[in-house]
């Protein structure tokens, strides 16, 4: 039986695929089979993604992203999704990349231990600071997503260059950064573009301790009342967690992106923006490579 929207039989589908019938996202729901088929089974191999990745919903504070994601189609890559993968339109086929497995990552963020099953399963391992996206050829993906990662890396400009390298012409780059006015970074100074450009030219691959000391001084200043040995431990901890190395508000991140693209001679069109003034959270943008 070749299922279509017109002849779909919920009971038949669940009987055909018992693993769907017992999956927490569909079990006990009158239309559970339909929910699975509409999201996965109708447009790709039945088990290609259904049970290998967690089922997630869009949190209220991220609803503004949906209009940007609606532009995407085809095969893509999301980097650093952790437990909040992008909620993409039906028809998008996405793979996940990160620096380590979800088990290793959750060990760095023990506050997320109870959410381990919501973490995506990493398909590709890459350290943006060390090898960039060199494991992928140019023009590999129809879209690429980098949400709240760029503030953690040593060389943001190199990351931007890599994102546009691996996306196809007419493909999309989704990139966002937290607006410091709505985060714990609020007391910190903005990161000057020329500082980042200098690090790009020097091919920097490591975040220096000075960045993490700046983070601690602004966010956890009392740690410096501890002994020198304890202070070293605090610095090592935030380094292990890869806390925010760079700081922007929405206006400055917009300037960062435009200046970066101009200097790298990347021709692109900004197709969607939602900034902190409107969402009280971040600068979120979608760019189409020309």
What's the CATH class of the largest domain, please?
A: Alpha Beta
CATH topology name of the largest domain: Rossmann fold
Oligomeric form of this entry?
single chain
What percent of the residues sit in helical stretches (DSSP H or I)?
A: 25-40%
Q: Please tell me the overall pLDDT.
A: 89
Number of strands: 7
**CA-atom Rg in angstroms:** 21 Å
Shape: globular
Sequence of secondary-structure elements: HHHHEEHEEHEHHHHEHE
Q: Give the amount of beta strand, in percent.
A: 15-25%
What does the largest sheet look like? 7 strands, mixed
Work out the count of structural domains: 3
Structural class: alpha/beta
- CATH architecture label of the largest domain: 3-Layer(aba) Sandwich
Strand order across the largest sheet: 3-2-1-4-5-7-6
Alpha carbon gap, first and last residue: 43 Å
Low-confidence stretches: 44-51
Count of alpha and pi helical runs: 11
Structure commentary:
The protein has 11 helices and 7 strands. Helix 1 (10-16) crosses helix 3 and helix 8 crosses helix 9 (228-241). The protein is globular and about 65 Å long. It has 290 residues and is an alpha/beta fold. The protein has 3 domains: 1-52, no CATH class; 60-183 and 249-289, Vaccinia Virus protein VP39 (Rossmann fold, 3-Layer(aba) Sandwich); 193-241, no CATH class. A 7-stranded mixed beta sheet has the order 3-2-1-4-5-7-6. This is Methyltransferase domain-containing protein. It holds the Pfam family Methyltransf_23. GO terms for molecular function: methyltransferase activity. Keywords: Methyltransferase, Transferase. InterPro entries: SAM-dependent_MTases_sf.
